Amino acid sequence: MIHAILAVMIQIKKTSASDKDFVSLVRDLDAELAVVDGEDHAFYDQFNKIGNIRNAIVLYSQNQPIGCGALKEFDTEAMEIKRMYIKQGYRGKGLASKILSNLENWALELNYKKCVLETGKRQKEAVILYKKRGYTKIPNYGPYIGVENSLCFEKIL
Fold this sequence. Notes:
Blueprint: H1 2-8, E1 10-15, H2 20-37, H3 41-45, E2 55-61, E3 64-73, E4 78-86, H4 95-109, E5 114-120, H5 124-132, E6 136-138, E7 150-156
Parallel strand pairs: 4-5
Antiparallel strand pairs: 1-2, 2-3, 3-4, 5-7, 6-7
């Protein structure tokens, strides 16, 4: 019953990285990742700046921002999923799947054929989510080549 009620109260806004709610959620995400990633956080942080992200989604519950995700052009055929986050207390309710689905649809609208992403082995819930949503493991790309903690995935849209 709670899940059904929550679904009615959810709103999704397409925006950009300059959106104040998106920026606030990314700050929360970075604080959480600093703990999870420990000494590795500075390495990953350099690849997660939001200044050049034009496509972001903010998820609201009762007009409060509770989650986000973004797209960044990877190449002419793919968008990279970035900055996926759901606030504590709202997790395990399918909201990250809702954000991911909206990002994938947005990538299709923009004529991209696939999505790629990187996540850390320590982000076990994220790995489960991406596999459940049809993402397949690929060799690490770009700055993540040779990085032991990184896992890279792709999904053909």
